[in-house]
Amino acid sequence: RRAVDAVAEDRTVGQQGMSFLRLVKPLAVVEDNVFLAVAEDYTKNYVETTLRGPVTEALSEVIGRDIRIAVTVDASVRPSASSSPETDDAPPPQMRRPEPVPSTVIEDPHLNPRYTFDTFVIGSSNRFAHAAALAVAESPGKTYNPLFIYGGSGLGKTHLLHAIGHYTRHLKPQTRVRYVNSEEFTNDFINSIRDDRSLSFKRQYREVDVLLIDDIQFLQGKEQTLEEFFHTFNALHNAGKHVVITSDVSPRNLDGIEERMRTRFEWGLMTDVQPPDLETRIAILRKKAAADAVQAPSDVLEYIASNITSNIRELEGALIRVTAFAALNRQPVDLSLAQVVLKDLISDDDSEITASMIIGKTAEYFGITLEELTGTSRSRVYVTARQIAMYLCRQLTDLSLPKIGEHFGGKDHTTVMYAVKKVEDQIAQRRQMYNQVNEIHARIKQSRA
Ligand code: ADP
Ligand code: MG
């Protein structure tokens, strides 16, 4: 509260800044970091760029030492209570989407300082997109124009877009770069018509060397804005300026956008970003922990990385939740704490299937004991049950072949490999095998619910 008041006194923040500030919820102070949560990307970006200075200063003042802020997106965050009367309830819609500030193109490219190539972890899921982004940053206007990056939410599209902006300006400080979210572009366009400012609008988006436009899918079905964007795009492209576009779907799947426009998007280079693999997820968490200077042991990072698999934003959010919770309760960050804190985040469906669960359910299905299943008897039914259980361990857990062998009374990894192969072959050939494996799998899943 005291920091908010301090920020309010900062004249540079203004009405818009204050309405954004009300959307921020403080989470915790961990050493020199203050963790803040907001409900939307859009807000996070604003807080991390425009508000970073005043907020950092005000918080440092209140806390009594130099701090850094770390902002996480958490959809469940409600605006924090404030002393001003109009925010007793949720802010009115126009406050949640404050009007964009007037043009300051060259001085302020609207880039988030955290989103650079240095902080971007490369893996097989994003290697190509990263390389393309780097190539554009190195010689804007030359190759891959436009560059179109698409992929699911939280996979690094916005990060890459900002990284292009930073690096371009690092290499050539005179380059005029402008980052804009499509939503902001739309608001800006509508306001420019209302206020009779179409000239300044055009200047803002056409007198640049690199236009970075985020989440173009937002323009779907918005005819007038699309038309304006189309002209902007053509003007820039004809002048040899670079346009980089992101979208949550490929150009082909952009409904509500005319064919002539979609074709234009495909002129340059299209590349997607995929969900990261386990190694990349762990590497991202390591980097994040280091950047925020928080201590988190490897098993905690691995736990988070193995359970949150499809969205990097959620991955980072989980780490922040764990470290913030630990700091608040003055507890060390360890695995058991992480499990408790993230319980509701990691849904039952994703909870781990263990070898013992598989062995138990398979034995039950065949009406034999655990000893019989994991033993050495070569009777037919035991062998079948054993092989199916080994096969399911391979399919449903992350265990290595030798580790699986250990669960079956210390069998050799080649035995496990043989079993997996055998069941695989039989599933394809014999209906009965297929049905048995499916049924056991279903029972394992059910037993977790
Ligand atoms: P998108 O725009 O695709 O929804 P963002 O670019 O906003 O995703 O990424 C979500 C969060 O994950 C951001 O905080 C971003 O810094 C982080 N992030 C995404 N990809 C990477 C990566 N490869 N390395 C490090 N951080 C990443
Ligand atoms: Mg984004």
From TrEMBL:
<feature type="domain" description="AAA+ ATPase">
    <location>
        <begin position="143"/>
        <end position="271"/>
    </location>
</feature>
<keyword id="KW-0238">DNA-binding</keyword>
<dbReference type="GO" id="GO:0005886">
    <property type="term" value="C:plasma membrane"/>
</dbReference>
<comment type="function">
    <text>Plays an essential role in the initiation and regulation of chromosomal replication. ATP-DnaA binds to the origin of replication (oriC) to initiate formation of the DNA replication initiation complex once per cell cycle. Binds the DnaA box (a 9 base pair repeat at the origin) and separates the double-stranded (ds)DNA. Forms a right-handed helical filament on oriC DNA; dsDNA binds to the exterior of the filament while single-stranded (ss)DNA is stabiized in the filament's interior.</text>
</comment>
<dbReference type="GO" id="GO:0005524">
    <property type="term" value="F:ATP binding"/>
</dbReference>
<dbReference type="InterPro" id="IPR020591">
    <property type="entry name" value="Chromosome_initiator_DnaA-like"/>
</dbReference>
<dbReference type="InterPro" id="IPR010921">
    <property type="entry name" value="Trp_repressor/repl_initiator"/>
</dbReference>
<dbReference type="InterPro" id="IPR013159">
    <property type="entry name" value="DnaA_C"/>
</dbReference>
<keyword id="KW-0547">Nucleotide-binding</keyword>
<dbReference type="Pfam" id="PF08299">
    <property type="entry name" value="Bac_DnaA_C"/>
</dbReference>
<dbReference type="GO" id="GO:0003688">
    <property type="term" value="F:DNA replication origin binding"/>
</dbReference>
<keyword id="KW-0963">Cytoplasm</keyword>
<feature type="binding site">
    <location>
        <position position="157"/>
    </location>
    <ligand>
        <name>ATP</name>
    </ligand>
</feature>
<dbReference type="InterPro" id="IPR003593">
    <property type="entry name" value="AAA+_ATPase"/>
</dbReference>
<feature type="domain" description="Chromosomal replication initiator DnaA C-terminal">
    <location>
        <begin position="354"/>
        <end position="423"/>
    </location>
</feature>
<keyword id="KW-0235">DNA replication</keyword>
<dbReference type="InterPro" id="IPR018312">
    <property type="entry name" value="Chromosome_initiator_DnaA_CS"/>
</dbReference>
<dbReference type="GO" id="GO:0008289">
    <property type="term" value="F:lipid binding"/>
</dbReference>
<dbReference type="Pfam" id="PF00308">
    <property type="entry name" value="Bac_DnaA"/>
</dbReference>
<dbReference type="InterPro" id="IPR038454">
    <property type="entry name" value="DnaA_N_sf"/>
</dbReference>
<dbReference type="InterPro" id="IPR027417">
    <property type="entry name" value="P-loop_NTPase"/>
</dbReference>
<dbReference type="GO" id="GO:0006275">
    <property type="term" value="P:regulation of DNA replication"/>
</dbReference>
<keyword id="KW-0067">ATP-binding</keyword>
<comment type="subunit">
    <text>Oligomerizes as a right-handed, spiral filament on DNA at oriC.</text>
</comment>
<keyword id="KW-0446">Lipid-binding</keyword>
<feature type="binding site">
    <location>
        <position position="156"/>
    </location>
    <ligand>
        <name>ATP</name>
    </ligand>
</feature>
<feature type="region of interest" description="Domain III, AAA+ region">
    <location>
        <begin position="110"/>
        <end position="326"/>
    </location>
</feature>
<feature type="region of interest" description="Domain IV, binds dsDNA">
    <location>
        <begin position="327"/>
        <end position="449"/>
    </location>
</feature>
<dbReference type="InterPro" id="IPR013317">
    <property type="entry name" value="DnaA_dom"/>
</dbReference>
<protein>
    <recommendedName>
        <fullName>Chromosomal replication initiator protein DnaA</fullName>
    </recommendedName>
</protein>
<dbReference type="InterPro" id="IPR001957">
    <property type="entry name" value="Chromosome_initiator_DnaA"/>
</dbReference>
<dbReference type="GO" id="GO:0005737">
    <property type="term" value="C:cytoplasm"/>
</dbReference>
<feature type="binding site">
    <location>
        <position position="154"/>
    </location>
    <ligand>
        <name>ATP</name>
    </ligand>
</feature>
<comment type="similarity">
    <text>Belongs to the DnaA family.</text>
</comment>
<feature type="region of interest" description="Domain I, interacts with DnaA modulators">
    <location>
        <begin position="1"/>
        <end position="76"/>
    </location>
</feature>
<feature type="region of interest" description="Disordered">
    <location>
        <begin position="78"/>
        <end position="110"/>
    </location>
</feature>
<feature type="binding site">
    <location>
        <position position="158"/>
    </location>
    <ligand>
        <name>ATP</name>
    </ligand>
</feature>
<dbReference type="GO" id="GO:0006270">
    <property type="term" value="P:DNA replication initiation"/>
</dbReference>
